[in-house]
Amino acid sequence: MEGFEQILQNNHIKPTAMRLLVLQFLLNKRTALSLSQLENYFDNADRTTIFRTIKTFVEKGLVHQIDDGTGVTKYALCEENCECEIETDLHLHFRCSKCKETTCLTEHRIPHINLPKGYTAENINLVVKGICENCNQE
């Protein structure tokens, strides 16, 4: 788990057993996950510990939150050197209506939006809904 420890340290996060496990799980998943999905996977772990782990990951910029229109916040790992800034780091998200998974499409950036004078953007979210590549192959 030395590589996982280094990732946490690079993001100024103290490595703990739960943080290492959650990081490893997120790295192995290619889709965004809800807090309840993490809790179900780590069913023997304390829910508060999982919540605090994800909260720390978000605060330190290791994970970003996704509003995919389901009413449940999802979490996905940020790309390396991501600052989650509106001007530089925003990308599309895809929500599959068949398998219900949400995927970051990091290679597809959200273009700069010119807002009218006096408006300030605090968050931008663009979710494309449809059938994912895996479900299309079935």
Arrangement of strands in the largest sheet: 1-3-2
> What is the terminal-to-terminal distance?
35 Å
CATH architecture: Orthogonal Bundle
Unreliable runs, pLDDT <50, ≥5 residues? none
- Largest sheet entry: 3 strands, antiparallel
CATH class: Mainly Alpha
Q: CATH topology, anyone?
A: Arc Repressor Mutant, subunit A
Overall mean pLDDT score? Answer: 89
- Give me the CATH superfamily: Winged helix-like DNA-binding domain superfamily/Winged helix DNA-binding domain
Count all strands and give the number. Answer: 6
Order of secondary-structure elements: HHEHHEEEEEH
Contiguous helical run count = 5
Q: Structural class, judged by helices and strands?
A: alpha+beta
Q: What general outline do the C-alpha atoms trace?
A: globular
Radius of gyration: 16 Å
Strand content: 15-25%
Helix content: 25-40%
